[in-house]
Structure prediction request, 134 residues.
Amino acid sequence: MASTIGEYKSVITWNTGYIEVRKENRVIYTAVLRNLAVGMYRILNSLQEASRGLVGMRLALTACDDWTAYVEPKITGVGWLVDYGLRTVVGARCLDGLCVLAQRCVSQNISYIDHRNYDGPLISAALGFGLADF
Prediction:
């Protein structure tokens, strides 16, 4: 089945759970989804978020050490930090505002996206940013 989501086209093979997302006739993302309904929900959320510009919940960086960052509001969860300064999507594990990062540090201009609702690699590909994940 093929469908169009804004400027993106997706091809889904229902019997295998394989999905391919294209932008301007170029494949930007492929995956085999174990739970197709949950996967499609995350993919649609991610494409909608990426097409609207600034993604996720805006955070204020209060301090950044080697592989950790302190952010406000004090979030807890697993997800990705979208770093507009470095143009990358960084894997993050956060507990009460302390985030362990998949790269050494992040810039001041960041947003947080939760892994339950969004697909970090897809957002990275849709924005044209690099990806640093665990």
About this structure: The first strand starts at residue 2 and ends at 5. The CA atoms of residues 23 and 41 lie 19 Å apart. Residues 36-51 form the longest helix (16 residues).
